[in-house]
Amino acid sequence: MKKVAFIALSLSLLCTGFANAQEENSNSFKKWMVRVRGVAVIPSECADIGIIGGDASISNTVIPELDFTYFFTKNIAAELILGTSKHDVHTTASDISAIGGPSKTDVNLGSVYLLPPTLTLQYHFMPEKCFKPYVGAGINYTIFYNVDGGNTVKDVKYDNAFGFALQAGLDYKINDKFFINIDAKKIFLKTDVTVDASNLSPGLSIPASVNIDPWLLGVGVGMKF
């Protein structure tokens, strides 16, 4: 009976020690990161424009960006990226001779804001080192808002759209809490655009399919907690 009690007590202590070790291991790293970056948004645009032809031109811009990262393990994490950008838009080499204009000209399409929340799943290499590279892939949903069609056409409509994102970056550890970050993302984004040019010719509506496909190149600082 004493032997049974001893074995039971030993197994109980062993299981307790194993559980405590597992808990300690699972909690031995900070699971949240927050970063603030300055990000250059650089579209790699091309377009298929109906009726007037030509291509699209979308301006570059620099924005602040905020992101939150949650670590499932020391290597695997999910990152939610938040930011918004404003871009000026115009066509290039379009033919508007049918309405009395030149056969090769740029058409001002005003400006538009983009809100592109992006969620990526990441793999972090060498999590214990000072230099911590990572790669990621995920999805994006871009909302177009505050559209200003400019002074040439009556209105411009952009369809909200899903896209895909690829990511690579590096965190440099300053101390156990703070770090410096550099990050590059490529978002593959396509939207359908409708230009209401009825002010130029009655009933004139110009359809376009536009690949925006921006690069997002960022530098910032972050905190772990």
From TrEMBL:
Gene3D superfamilies: 2.40.160.20
InterPro entries for this protein: OMP/PagP_B-barrel, OMPW
SUPFAM superfamilies: OMPA-like (SSF56925)
Keyword Ubl conjugation carried by entry: no
Tagged with keyword Glycosyltransferase: no
Superkingdom in the source lineage: Bacteria
Signal peptide, first to last residue: 1-21
Keywords annotated in UniProt: Signal
Xref: Pfam families: OmpW (PF03922)
Matching PANTHER family: OUTER MEMBRANE PROTEIN W, PTHR36920
Entry protein name: OmpW family outer membrane protein
Naturally occurring in which organism (per UniProt): Flavobacterium arundinis
